[in-house]
Design goal:
The chain is mainly beta. The protein has helices at 2-21, 177-185, 197-204, 207-211, 382-387, and strands spanning 51-58, 61-67, 79-85, 92-99, 113-122, 127-135, 145-151, 159-164, 222-226, 232-238, 243-249, 256-263, 270-277, 280-286, 297-301, 309-311, 315-316, 327-333, 341-347, 357-365, 371-374. It has a domain at 35-164: Tachylectin-2, Chain A. The radius of gyration is 22 Å and the shape is globular. The model is unreliable at 1-5 and 10-22 (pLDDT under 50). The structure holds (2R,3S,4R,5S)-2-(hydroxymethyl)piperidine-3,4,5-triol. (2R,3S,4R,5S)-2-(hydroxymethyl)piperidine-3,4,5-triol (DGJ) is lined by residues 52, 115-116, 221, 270-271, 290-291, 327.
């Protein structure tokens, strides 16, 4: 009898422990639960190491690509990681998709900054194409380049092709002759002090666009988006992070077509995450405060090339004004579920980068279609099933 009682009480204590520990640090989640901000073990029990990442769905499997972060450094010491999952909950480590190079002469040499990798599949060439933000080793964030790599298999290995600034010598497709004439009159010497009214006006009219025209536009935080017609776009923070560019990619997705627009000049947006719902494009971004969180911003447009309209911060719940402590990285359209989108963000830990966390939250929509991202301590994919 005593044994039975002690067995029952042991069982109860275990249940209670599992209940309380399910969403806390260093404890594997109960299968199926997504716990934003907590340790997220892969199928080997190790916290997923794929930061600033994005997802790709191919042939029944999701692939999660992201930056491999080290214990003490945010520099790229390993490369881009790939994880795979069929259910978005259990992720298998597929290894390094794009490895940094041991060759000190390589643009992607170990110790460079390689951020926010994204992968898309090109139906025509049957190739997987990875783009990422690249900063050359030892040069801080001054290079502001885009790198591209390709593979015949989703998990890689990816072959590095090149890096550069974007669209050298090419003006935005919506710039008129009159706009260009105004830009041509801008003299940088008159605008040395940032954030004055006249400087802000000059940046909007193309002060930095003109400065960088010959060598190509700067490209830092970035996103890729494939539209319903198969055209792909590269969205990146340009002009010293003051302006977003939306640039069409070539048919093989491996270069730029030369067609692009500027969005929100002087708006200081980073971390663009874009999706399309009922024919409307939505883009969630952040402000620019380094690794520290700030308030999310949101834009919408009926055409990918704009005009884009700004909306209030879509976040709701505790810490909503700091995007729950995170910074946007991707929005996933869930396959096979009606109207299901997941907002994804990173909680950076610059002093212990490998311990950075992931925020995944379902996107809700108001009656007028405006997205809302509400904090939840935990949730499952049944969220959409239960909503019906
Ligand atoms: C914010 C960006 O979004 C990150 O990807 C990274 O570049 C940090 N800034 C570096 O401070």
């Amino acid at each position: 009898m005593k044994t039975l009682v002690s067995k029952i009480s042991l069982g109860l204590s275990l249940l209670v422990a599992v209940f309380f520990a399910a969403c806390s640090d260093n404890y594997p989640k109960i299968a199926g639960e997504i716990c934003p901000g907590e340790i997220w073990p892969d199928t080997n029990g190790e916290h997923i190491n794929a930061h600033g990442g994005g997802l790709m769905y191919y042939d029944g499997t999701y692939y999660w690509f992201g930056e491999n972060k080290g214990e003490r450094s945010s520099a790229a010491l390993v490369g881009v990681m790939c994880y795979s999952s069929k259910n978005l909950k259990d992720w298998k480590n597929e290894g390094v998709a794009l490895a940094v190079s041991e060759d000190p002469e390589s643009e992607i040499t170990k110790g460079c900054v390689l951020e926010r990798p994204k992968v898309i599949y090109n139906e025509k060439t049957k190739k997987f194409v990875m783009w990422f933000h690249l900063e050359l080793k030892g040069k801080g964030y001054s290079a502001a380049r885009s790198g591209v790599a390709v593979s015949d298999s989703p998990t890689g290995p990816y072959t590095y092709l090149r890096s550069s600034r974007v669209n050298p010598g090419i003006l935005p497709c919506d710039m008129t002759e009159a706009d260009k004439a105004v830009m041509d009159t801008l003299n940088p010497q008159n605008y040395e002090k940032w954030w004055t009214d006249s400087w802000t006006d000059a940046v909007k009219k193309g002060l930095i666009l003109k400065r960088d025209l010959e060598g190509g536009q700067m490209a830092r935080d970035m996103q890729l988006f494939v539209d319903d017609d198969g055209k792909a776009y590269h969205i990146y923070a340009s002009e010293e992070n003051l302006t977003l560019n939306i640039a069409e990619l070539s048919e093989d997705y491996q270069s730029h077509s030369g067609k692009y627009v500027r969005v929100a000049p002087t708006g200081h947006n980073e971390a663009p995450a874009i999706f399309k719902r009922n024919g409307k494009y939505w883009m969630i971004t952040s402000g620019c405060t380094g690794w520290d969180p700030n308030e999310a911003r949101m834009f919408s447009a009926d055409n990918i090339f704009g005009p884009w309209t700004q909306h209030p911060n879509p976040c709701v719940g505790p810490n909503k004004d700091l995007t729950f402590g995170g910074q946007s990285t991707y929005v996933l359209k869930v396959q096979g579920l009606d109207d299901a989108y997941i907002f994804m963000a990173d909680i950076w830990r610059p002093k212990h980068p490998i311990d950075a966390r992931y925020i995944w939250l379902p996107i809700q929509f108001k009656e007028d279609g405006t997205p809302v991202v509400e904090w939840m301590d935990s949730w499952t994919l049944d969220y959409w099933k239960n909503k019906k």
